[in-house]
From TrEMBL:
The protein's name in its UniProt record: IS630 family transposase
Pfam families: DDE_3, HTH_Tnp_Tc3_2
Any GO BP: DNA transposition
TM spans (from-to): none
Top-level taxonomy: Eukaryota, Fungi, Fungi incertae sedis, Mucoromycota, Glomeromycotina
Ranges of residues in domain Tc1-like transposase DDE: 210-266
SUPFAM superfamilies with a match to the protein in the record: Homeodomain-like
Species: Rhizophagus clarus
Signal peptide span: none
GO terms, molecular function: DNA binding
Amino acid sequence: MVNAKFEAQRKTIKHHWLNGIRTAEEIHKLTRIPLRTVQYNVKKLKETGSVEHKRGNGRQYKVTQNISRAIGQNVRRNNAISTRQLANNIENNYDISISHVTVWNHMKKKGYKSSIPLGTPMLTNRHIEMRKTWAQAHLNDNWNCTIFTDETAFDLFRNKVRRWHKDGDRPIRKLPKNRQKVMAWGGISKKGKTPLFCFTDIMDGPFYQDNDPKHTSRVAKEFIAENGICVIDWPSNSPDLNPIENMWQIIKNNVEKRMPQNIDEFTKFLVEEWEAIPQKQLII
């Protein structure tokens, strides 16, 4: 189907052409229609005397080198652009009819993939320098006796697992307005895992050694000192340095696939999935 805006542009170009304005540059200055669109239509007027859009025969449009280059330029300018927006931009600038499916197939052919960006910590230059200093200071440490600990929140009804379905039959999962959470704490080392401790109550001073205020609280410090625990200093805003972070994602995905129906079942599955992770998977 011909774009209405595009059709109006063609008529405007033809109007100026018939009134004696024969160069694309002049028509572009008068109308502010994209120069490429004007050039294309002026060329058609010179060759055929018409700007009418030829109807296709139903076959898939073959992406030319110029269109391929334009698609790449659009994506480099805005890598969040949708294939529908891309197709619309190409139609408006090149006077062709192209579907978003054709654009999608061409992008896949060129090696493009649509992915959610990987999340990384928001680091300042100071954070980066502190991380470098920390890494150099601990480069030759013996990590065999180090326990990496962390706590995290697990959401019941997380709804992140992809599921197969046919067109018109997309799965639906009912989600409560206020989702229940379970907090969990655990530790991993070269020698194995600690038990996974799950709780739903608010904790006012648990042990864990990044720079979260509750981890550096007086209660936590007293507990550490009384039990003779040696704590490693930790650079700010650097949870990704802790290898246990990878464990949490594995457990969240595995538990969600089991589709727990209540908080007790959810907690039970969390512990089972924690215990099921083999020692060889603890990459430290």
